[in-house]
Each structure stands twice: as C-alpha cells, then as structure tokens.
Amino acid sequence: MQTTGQRAGLFLFLIGFALFVGTLTLSQYRLTDQVLAKTAKKEQLTDLRTATAPILGKLYGSSFGFVGDLKAAVGQLNSGYQQAKQYDKQIGSDFIFQTTKAASTGFFPAHSQWFFWASLLLCVGGALLYFLPERRTLPGIKNNGVFHNPATNRGWIGIIVGTFLIGFYVVLYFYPEYLTNWTLLFDPLSRLVNGGPASQWFVYGSLYTLAILVMGVRMLVKYRGNPYQQIRTVSVMFFQLAFAFLIPELMALFNQPAQDLKNMWPLDYSFYFDYRIDEKIKAGTFGLFLLVWGTALWLVGVPILTYFFGKRWYCSWVCGCGGLAETLGDPYRQLSDKRLVAWKFERVIVHSVLAFAVVMTALVLYTYATGQSSLFGILDSYSLRSTYGFAIGSVFAGVVGTGFYPLMGNRVWCRFGCPLAAYLGLVQRFKSRFRITTNGGQCISCGNCSTYCEMGIDVRWYAQRGQDIVRSSCVGCGICSSVCPRGVLNLENADETSRLTSPNPILLGNNSIHVQP
C-alpha cells in the first residue's frame, strides 16, 4: 500500500511529466526571411523564398499546421529539382527540423528555461520521493502482487505507458520536427557540454541518461541488501553518464569525432560506414585511435572478457541498452515469455540479425574499398544499410525494443534483436568460464527465479535438476540468485571442464549423480 510520501511523489511526478509533454504545444510559429537565411544554404535561399512565399510572415498557433505547410512547400520544390535532375539541390529533412525550431516564437521560447527547471525538478523530485519510502520495508522480492498490478502485468497503466513510449520513438526517429520545443528546453545544457544547440538526439541522450540515473536509485533502494546488485547498478549508471553521454559530447566540444567509447560493432552498426571512417581519418591521430579502439573492442576484447566473465561484463555492467532495461525496465522483467516456442523464435531471429549486420558491414567496406556500390549486380550496399538502419536500428531497437517494455518485458531488444548480444552469447555458450551453478537439493520450486528472469529462461527447470545454467541468452544480471529464498543459485566463473551439463541428473539429497545419456 502506498504511503503518504509516495502518493505525494507520484502526484509531483505526474504534474512535472504533464508540464514537460505540454511544452510541445506552447509555441507559435512564424516563417520569416531571417529564419530562412539562418537555416537554408545560400544556393537554395532564392528558390526557398519563392516556394515558401505563401506562408512567409504567417503566424501559426501549432506545429502541425506550420510543419504541414512547410513540408508541402519543400516537397513541391524537391519535385521540381527531381524533374530537372538537379538531385544535388534537393533539401533534406533536417531543414524542416531546423526551420521549425528557428521559427518558434512567442512566450515559450523566451521563457523555456523556467519550464525546463520546473518539469525537471518536479519529475526527478517526485520520482525520488516515491522510491525512497521503500527503505522502510525489508529489501528483496516479496509477494507484492506483481501479476495483479495494472502497471506491471499488461494492465491499463502498462498499456498507456507502452503506447506513450512507442509514440515517442516513432516521433523521435521519423518526425523530429514536432519535438523542437524540447530541443529549446535543452539548448543551454547542450551549449554547455558540446558548444552547440540541442538536436533531437541530444534531448534523447539526456532523457535516456536521466532515466537510468533516477531509476538506478530505485534499484539501489530495492536491492540495498545485495552487494552484487548495488555494484552492478552503480556501474551501468557510471558508464551511461560518463562514457555514453558526457565524453562523446565533450569530444564534439573539442571538434573531435563523437563516439561512445563503450559501444562497439555490430551494435554500433554504422561504425564502418564511409562517412564515419573518413571523419576519423580526417581527425588525425585521435581519430585513428578511435578506429583502432572500436575494432579491437569487438575483435579482441569481446572474446577475452567474455571467456573470463561471460556476457554479463557488457550486457549487465556496461551497455546502455542493458542499463535502461535494468533500471527503467525493471518493473516489467517478469513479463518475458518463458515458453519453449519463444526460445526457439529468439534463437532464429537474434542470430539472423547478427548475420544481417555482418553481410551489411562487409558490403559497406567493399564499397568503401572499391567504390562499387553493388556486388554481382544484386546486393547494393546503400540500400542494404538503409534497410538495416530503418528496420533494425530504428524500429526494432527503438520502437519495439523500448516501447514494448510494458508488453513483452524489459529485454525485448537484447533477447530478440541485439546483434552484439548474439555475438557475446555465442562466445559465452561455447567458450566461457561463466555459469550459474545450482543446488537442486535445496530448491523448493517456488518459481521466483523463472518469474523474474528477464531473458525468458526457465531457471527453475535447471534448479530442480541441479543442472548448471549455461545459456547464450543469459546476461548474468543475477536477479534469479537475488530472489531465491534458499540460496540455490550462484554466479560463478569456473573452469570450463567442471560444468554440470548432463540433461538427466538423478538427485540424492544435497548431492547429484549425473547419468550420461
């Protein structure tokens, strides 16, 4: 039952969240010659003035009308360029975003910082006020009605949250011009850390980091009696804040190629794209270091570190996707599908994505080396990487991977789509010292371990048989061990030859005799 402090915290959070979302509707928009001069290229300015003449000086009360008319004018101009085969003059979608932001006028742009601090303090303060009263209760997992709560078992609250997340990612990836008011909110912060105005990606990175930090506090409170979970949570909070957010932004501030130093191919699928390679080469010694570092990380670091520590060294301690899943997504971990059919589907699709990434990258490097965009006249590198970026990088990783937290659990992307998780999993399954050992004689079949396994592993099945868990999908989060009331499960880095992998053990008290099939 919620305390008075929790109810107050929830109320403050909802007020701050409503204020933050509501800022998207507060601007008015007016396209002027000064705005066009600021956002258009010089060679396009004359044509744009002619194309946008009907809306120049017109005041719009919402972004929908302004963006619709601006897109229509730009689309008509681009059609003329296509007919004249002047493809180099075509105006990209970034012009729509930048112009919408520059055309924002009225009360909100002049006072955006008041809205920023008000919404930030209300949201963060309310969330912390909601989490901190949990210190009065005993740590750990209890019978807390997780499958009867409309927020954590696909109820009406979960559906609303999922719908919002899906809508957010759709707008972020495909219609960022409707988020320009949020970039106005974050402009001062962006100028502080990278020296330039905020883009939709800076806003996303800021919100992503803030979510991990705030929900990380929740994890620290929830698992305050478990040192492993405490250290692991602090680790993902640190790596997201420092390596994924601050360091790349500071690189941009010093005119260096921005790169998340902990991210790597194939998760960073564009790492070997031509423009990114050229960017690093032009940056000189530091750029070459980034190129070598990023290559060495997946080529050498992954096999070595995964051999000694399993994929948990990355998926549960370092990765930003895993960090968001473990913090923001923790309330939904019990929703992962434990059925055998889900496991079969998982193995096919996640390794298919990895194969897709390998083929796409190989073709991109072939194009970079030879200048030929197609191989055997069949595979075109530009269309292939565009397809991958849309289907995997945007829809799967973003819209489905995070938007489906309240519907399919918090590790949808990690389990079914992440090519790096597939690569790490192959190493873990066949050449790693990591395992979860079980003591079947102590298992009482309560099912906590399987319930809270975010990767859809039926941990109880292994525990009942006293069989060590060596699964490529296991991210070593350790929650199964944390929620076990009898201490049956332990995360270990043991010698490969000592694994207990017999599928047919006979249990005798606290010991097990394994019958070879």
Automatic annotation (TrEMBL):
InterPro entries: 4Fe4S_Fe-S-bd (IPR017896), 4Fe4S_Fe_S_CS (IPR017900), Electron_Trans/Redox (IPR051684). The keyword Ribonucleoprotein does not apply. One of its GO terms (cellular component) is plasma membrane. One of its GO terms (molecular function) is 4 iron, 4 sulfur cluster binding. Residues 434-462, 465-494 form the 4Fe-4S ferredoxin-type domain. The chain crosses the membrane at residues 9-29, 114-133, 154-175, 201-221, 233-254, 286-309, 348-368, 388-407. The keyword Nuclease does not apply. Gene3D superfamilies: 3.30.70.20. Keywords: 4Fe-4S, Electron transport, Iron, Iron-sulfur, Membrane, Metal-binding, Transmembrane, Transmembrane helix, Transport. PANTHER family: FERREDOXIN-TYPE PROTEIN NAPH (PTHR30176). This is 4Fe-4S binding protein.
